[in-house]
Amino acid sequence: xxxxxxxxxxxxxxxxxxxxxxxxxxxxxxxxxxxxxxxxxxxxxxxxxxxxxxxxxxxxxxxxxxxxxxxxxxxxxxxxxxxxxxxxxxxxxxxxxxxxxxxxxxxxxxxxxxxxxxxxxxxxxxxxxxxxxxxxxxxxxxxxxxxxxxxxxxxxxxxx
Amino acid sequence: xxxxxxxxxxxxxxxxxxxxxxxxxxxxxxxxxxxxxxxxxxxxxxxxxxxxxxxxxxxxxxxxxxxxxxxxxxxxxxxxxxxxxxxxxxxxxxxxxxxxxxxxxxxxxxxxxxxxxxxxxxxxxxxxxxxxxxxxxxxxxxxxxxxxxxxxxxxxxxxxxxxxxxxxxxxxxxxxxxxxxxxxxxxxxxxxxxxxxxxxxxxx
Lengths: 160, 204
Known about the structure:
The complex is a heterodimer of chains A (160) and B (204).
Chain A: H1 17-37, H2 40-57, H3 64-86, H4 103-109, H5 113-124, H6 129-136, H7 140-158
Chain B: H1 2-17, H2 29-67, E1 81-86, E2 89-90, E3 101-103, E4 107-111, E5 131-132, E6 135-145, E7 151-158, E8 192-193, E9 196-197
Antiparallel strand pairs in B: 1-4, 1-6, 2-5, 3-7, 6-7, 8-9
């Protein structure tokens, strides 16, 4: 059977526009959430909850992906807050395949929450400064200075 | 400096890219839908609970008024109803007797003058499919807008033969209607006030 005859799973098969967004964004959102909460299981929970919230409001939301990003970020914040309250230590990255210690990601994990969020959005989702500002609800200048400080801190920890 | 920037940039990009793609778990739409239903049930449950509290306190207030000076008898009260035309709305649960209804894109017309007996026992508005039927409703009680932008009322009931657009009477009906048989009695002028004889006048 040639490649041309193989049925391609395309977005046309998803008749519901919500399903298209879910299909396109699920994995990247899970990756972003995992980078923030360090646990793939919790990340998936957060992302599914965010999709459930979006599902209820899909017709009313102008920019579903932006809404989703903010929902996931807020969900991650909630997880981290709960974790701080219960004083349990964040589990070290337990993603399958990530058995090798990565000192760069470990340095990112030690950043303050705001800096960590900004770095994750930049390097995981490849967002621009303006998009990060929209997602985090910050002025553009604050995003730039936050990223600058985060990079300076990472440089001092990782390179020097 | 820019070399250092490039270095850390490259390191970070490499570190994030090196994370596993995690393509094993297929996203489940069934799970999303069931979560959404659970979220909505929780949210509506909270609203209905709060509304039930309001309803209980409202009934208590009405009852106290009924036994005191207002003369409201039994389950009949005068009130202002809001007429609303609403389309079908699914996914909202209705609770009897305290009913919360949410409508999308409602066009509401306030009838400030209508005097309608308040029926404490509300009929459920939910049809077997779980959807609120479309049509004209009269609604009463606290209103609000939920986070989806829907207008909701404390209580609504479907109407079919309500008189249309008769907005001639004025004002909200007084809770204490004047008894036409009551006549005022003119009292005699007081002769003393706070122990002082009113008939004593001081002139300067």
